Amino acid sequence: MNSQKLLTIILGIIGIISMVFLFIIINVGDEAISAGEASGSVDTFMYISYIILFATLAIVLFFVVKGLFTGNIKKTLMSVGAFVAIILVSYILSSGTDLDLTAFNNKGLGITEAISKNVGAGLIAFYILGFLAIVSMVYSGFNKISK
User: Fold this and answer.
1) What is the 3-state secondary structure (H, E, C) of the chain?
2) Which of 24, 36, 109, 123 is the 20 to 30 Å CA partner of 8?
């Protein structure tokens, strides 16, 4: 059995388990969830969902690392470098002083300029990556049409 087939089976099982948990959560309702918080059953579901999340992340990381060693490492490192460059440019462009933080601090949230700068950098990176994704899809579409 190859690794691709094994991964598909594992992801299918995780998906089915997730659907069962979603069905259980939707059917119990808000009152049962509030009552479950007191009895500790919500904590059990949270721990199970954390285990599923970490198992999925471990599987993804395993296959990413496996793909790094079997594929073209130069292209992979160039892609990672481009992503890091986008994050760096986003952080440099973010000011952190573009909104008044007193309203947040009056509510006791403790938002600082550093936190605001990190959020701004994340938003700018999201916009850049979204723009690049759209441009690459349009470029790919035009190439398919022109051939």
Assistant:
1) CCHHHHHHHHHHHHHHHHHHHHHHHHHHHHHHHHHHHHHCHHHHHHHHHHHHHHHHHHHHHHHHHHHHHHCCHHHHHHHHHHHHHHHHHHHHHCCCCCCCCHHHHHCCCCCCHHHHHHHHHHHHHHHHHHHHHHHHHHHHHHHHHHC
2) 24
